[in-house]
Write a structure and sequence with these properties.
95% helix; 2 helices; mainly alpha; single chain
């Protein structure tokens, strides 16, 4: 029974991570362009932060699972 519960929790966590990542990547171009009008460096920083956050979530999850 515990393995089924663990599998279900992993699936829910993966679905939440995927939904947040898809939303962030979907809105990223408009965010970067909006911030790029203020400052190109700010637009670049926002784009880099969104992409790095995507990988950072998986890195943190792997660190937590150890």
């Amino acid at each position: 029974m515990a393995a089924d519960n663990q599998t279900r929790n992993n699936a829910i966590a993966a679905a939440i991570i995927l939904a947040v990542a898809c939303a962030g990547l979907y809105f990223m171009p408009s965010i970067v362009l909006s911030l790029g009008k203020i400052s190109p460096i700010l637009g670049f920083a926002a784009g880099a932060a969104i992409i790095l956050a995507f990988f950072g979530v998986f890195w943190l999850r792997s660190r937590f699972r150890r």
